[in-house]
Specification:
The chain is an alpha+beta fold and about 280 residues long. About 30% of the residues lie in helices and about 30% in strands.
Length: about 280
């Protein structure tokens, strides 16, 4: 098999910008993210053979064990195969890295696709309780200070690894329609719909944040690791907020994508987000 490699100048530039500056991420993890991004983007196509470890050591100015740790993680994820005398090769599995369809901005498509993603993962319920809403949650849900809400913290698992961490705050009147056991089995969106709540609109914002100690433990990363934070506020048919959710993703496991198209009514539609296994 013919060995191929990126243009040397391009690799050096990437090395300097990604690995040279200060970062809370260990070197091996930064290399892992770099190689994974190249696989996801198609720069390293299935069948591509990576340069030898000694060449990568020179290119990035790191030790052999650093290179090996990064490549071994990718191999454990099924994106690379490694063999003595055969080199390190991108697998065919890397050609298909998405689960389900993009989330569409139209409200019905949004709910259907959120439910679809939920069905493609498993749930670990970490915390479930009714308690007084914090000032931030009370303001978001348009509640009086101290109003009782249902709080639930859940981790979604994709291929036995944490995919996302969600913290939901549901108004008490809606939350009493389903139980703790329900949230261990079903997607929260499905629970809202089964509770006869008609979602009329959703407000969403996206930001970056750093993992605290609890988030780092649940997402199996380190304190200070960058996370993608998606905040969603769901409104019922009376335009009253019923659920305020904050979802945290590994930035290398979720992609936010916008694709502008026109629907039959000549209105612009947007495709939003996809998980990456």
């Amino acid at each position: 098999m013919k060995r191929s490699s990126p243009i040397a100048g391009d690799v050096r530039k990437t090395s300097e910008s990604v690995l040279g500056g200060p970062s809370p991420l260990p070197l091996y993890h930064r290399l892992y993210l770099l190689f994974r991004e190249r696989i996801i983007s198609g720069m390293y196509a299935p069948g591509h053979v990576l340069p030898a470890e000694t060449e990568l050591m020179t290119t990035f100015g790191v030790s052999r064990i650093t290179i090996q740790r990064a490549l071994n993680i990718l191999a454990d994820e099924g994106l690379l195969t490694r063999g003595r005398g055969k080199g390190t090769t991108v697998t065919q599995e890397a050609a298909s890295l998405q689960v389900g369809k993009p989330i569409a901005a139209g409200i019905q498509e949004l709910l259907v696709n959120l439910s679809h993603i939920g069905h493609g993962t498993t749930i670990k319920l970490i915390q479930f309780e009714y308690q007084a809403a914090s000032p931030t949650v009370a303001h978001a849900l348009n509640l009086s200070p101290g109003a009782i809400v249902q709080n639930a913290t859940r981790v979604r698992m994709l291929r036995n690894k944490p995919f996302s961490l969600s913290v939901s705050h549901v108004t008490e009147s809606v939350g009493r329609a389903f139980t703790q056991e329900d949230l261990k089995k079903y997607n929260l969106i499905d629970m809202l719909l089964r509770s006869n709540v008609e979602i009329s609109r959703v407000e969403q914002s996206i930001a970056c944040c750093l993992a605290d100690d609890s988030q780092a433990q649940l997402l199996q990363t380190h304190v200070g690791a960058p996370l993608l934070k998606v905040s969603r506020l769901f409104f019922d048919e009376n335009d009253q907020p019923v659920n305020f959710a904050e979802i945290y993703y590994h930035p290398d496991r979720f992609q936010f994508r916008i694709s502008w198209t026109r629907d039959a009514d000549n209105k612009m539609q947007v495709d939003l987000g996809r998980p990456i296994p």
